[in-house]
Amino acid sequence: ILYLDLGHNMIKQIPNKFFNYFFNLNHLDLSKNSLKNLSSTTFKNLFSLIHLNLSSNFIENLPNFLFIDLY
After folding, report:
1. What global pTM score does this model have?
2. Dihedral of CA 61/13/39/19: which sign?
3. pLDDT given at position 71
4. Distances from the Cα of 27 to the Cα of 12, 43, 48, angstroms
5. What is the mean pLDDT of residues 1-7?
6. What span, in angstroms and rounded, lies between the C-alpha atoms of 49 and 36?
7. 5-49 pLDDT, tens per residue?
8. Distance of alpha carbon 52 from alpha carbon 4, whole angstroms
9. Among candidates 6, 5, 42, 4, which has minimal Cα distance to 24?
10. How far is 50 from 13, CA to CA, in rounded Å?
11. Residue 52: CB atoms within 10 Å
12. What is the Cα–Cα distance from 17 to 10, expressed in whole angstroms?
């Protein structure tokens, strides 16, 4: 999977390690959901990610090292 659009889905949380095997994912759209918190491992192993859209959520804070594996 190179492109994953999960926008407009009322997602409230993302399970830890959910994206662990999406090594080739380039674009991830999580916009217009109900996300409040993200784990520091949410985007771990998304080495190929170029575009990440988190707009129009309710994110309260971003943990340290959230984007550590992203280029």
Report:
1. 0.90
2. negative
3. 66
4. 20, 12, 9
5. 97
6. 21
7. 999 999 999 998 899 999 999 999 999 999 999 998 899 889 999
8. 10
9. 4
10. 22
11. 16
12. 20
pLDDT, average across residues 56-62: 94
Report the side by side order of strands in the sheet with 3-5: 3-5, 27-29, 51-53
pLDDT at position 64: 86
* pLDDT computed for residue 53 by the predictor: 98
In the predicted structure, residue 70 carries a pLDDT above the cut 80: no
**DSSP string covering 24-39, please?**
T--EEE--SS------
Say which residues have a Cβ less than 8 Å from residue 62's Cβ, sequence separation at least 6. 38
Q: Is residue 32 classed exposed, middle or buried when 0-12, 13-18 and 19+ CB atoms within 10 A define those classes? A: middle
* Residue 35 near residue 56 (C-beta atoms within 8 A): no
* 51 beta partners: 27
